[in-house]
């Protein structure tokens, strides 16, 4: 199985970045590229099976997606590597670290999913502050409820940035994505297994993230004995686009720890 990837090559440390569900490597580069700028990394951005330009040639389960990513890593990069992900990509990244610790020497998890079932997540019990009048006016109708729940930094400029990222990259396979998200195999089989990941880990969450929350992520820190946890105010599920300067500072700290 071959994933479509943007891999510039180079001799710096490799960081492989995994995307949010239904998004592409172009969106992932827009999210993480500014955070890694100037760090001398070999940044690799991949499209997951059925996402972007990668065809859906594996069964629609998270374990099969994870296995496909690991197969690609075994073939294309020399491990262990740095692994970064957002949302579903972070969920997969944590799973890779559990199942294939030989591949990973550092984890950056941004707004990570911890439990995949929506009704199992502990979400914020307070609504985000009101945004300025008309802040969602430019969002398509079908995305307004999602963005209202997802965003903590509620401005039209943030909405425009998020929409541009969501609309970038290849088309993906909508049928595969629906089957993956709606099937019994959406959760990794070892989702609840308690395994210590003894590498530098940074977990960044949004205080107003109404999609995956921030409490489950704090509880999961017991799995990361070398972990740093940050919850960011005025940020939600699209934190890289809502608070890029702060994410850059936290990413640079993480990189420093991986080199220490």
UniProtKB/TrEMBL annotation:
Alphabetical list of Gene3D superfamilies matching this protein: alpha/beta hydrolase
Keywords: Hydrolase
Residue stretches making up the AB hydrolase-1 domain: 36-247
GO molecular function: hydrolase activity
SUPFAM superfamilies the record matches: alpha/beta-Hydrolases
Short name of one Pfam family: Abhydrolase_6
InterPro entries: AB_hydrolase_1, AB_hydrolase_fold, AB_hydrolase_sf, Epox_hydrolase-like
Record's protein name: Alpha/beta fold hydrolase
Organism: Micromonospora vulcania
């Amino acid at each position: 199985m071959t994933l479509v990837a943007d891999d510039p090559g180079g001799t710096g440390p490799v960081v492989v970045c995994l995307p949010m569900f239904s998004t592409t490597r172009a969106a992932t580069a827009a999210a993480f590229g500014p955070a890694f700028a100037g760090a001398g990394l070999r940044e690799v951005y991949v499209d997951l099976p059925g996402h972007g330009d990668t065809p859906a040639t594996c069964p629609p389960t998270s374990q099969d997606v994870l296995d496909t990513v690991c197969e690609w890593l075994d073939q294309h990069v020399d491990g262990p590597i740095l692994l970064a992900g957002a949302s579903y990509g972070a969920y997969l990244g944590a799973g890779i670290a559990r199942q294939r610790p030989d591949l990973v020497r550092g984890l950056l998890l941004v707004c990570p999913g911890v439990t995949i079932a929506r009704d199992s997540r502990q979400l914020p019990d307070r609504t985000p502050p009101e945004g300025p009048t008309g802040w969602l006016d430019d969002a398509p109708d079908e995305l307004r409820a999602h963005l209202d729940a997802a965003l903590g930094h509620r401005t039209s400029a943030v909405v425009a940035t998020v929409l541009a990222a969501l609309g970038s990259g290849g088309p993906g396979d909508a049928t595969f994505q629906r089957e993956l998200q709606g099937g019994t195999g959406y959760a990794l089989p070892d989702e609840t297994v308690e395994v210590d990941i003894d590498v530098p880990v940074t977990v960044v969450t949004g205080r107003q993230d109404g999609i995956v929350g921030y409490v489950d992520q704090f509880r999961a820190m017991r799995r990361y004995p070398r972990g740093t946890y940050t919850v960011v105010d005025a940020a939600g599920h699209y934190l890289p686009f809502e608070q890029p300067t702060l994410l850059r500072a936290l990413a640079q700290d993480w990189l420093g720890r991986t080199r220490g």
